[in-house]
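The following record pairs a protein chain with its ligand, zinc ion.
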Amino acid sequence: MSSSRPNYYEILEVSNSATPEEIKSNYYRLAKLLHPDKGRGENGVGTADTAAPKADAAFQLIEEAYRILANMASRKLYDADEAACQKSFPIAAYISPNDMDSIEDPRGLSYPCRCGDVFFVGQDKLDSSNSKSPEMVVPCSSCSFAVVLRFNLPSEE
Ligand SMILES: [Zn+2]
């Protein structure tokens, strides 16, 4: 599992607690600097052919970073993925709340871990994050595995 995904915050030169306004203004600033059409007229003829492909790639990366970070839902997903990577929990599974049950502990939902223990998330935590975040990383209390609980998976009507 390689996590060679670019850091979108670094690309946009913002901190990961940046406000949507900061993200937006940095995006516009960088996009202006790196726009593929930029520099063709200003830097004279000849430079465009060699410089353009590089600028293109950088510009696309900025576009991609902005597309992810400008949207609250995709930004949260990205943050959750990054957090999971940084803590280096091996993700055992992607599950929805419907895959879990409250047999182990009625105060929340459990999902069996391969180590014999369970991934457990309390009902209070579920209530508070359900509306805020589309997914949650739930680590096993006994081993280093974690499951990613996704709330936005289609559920039964
Ligand atoms: Zn475990």
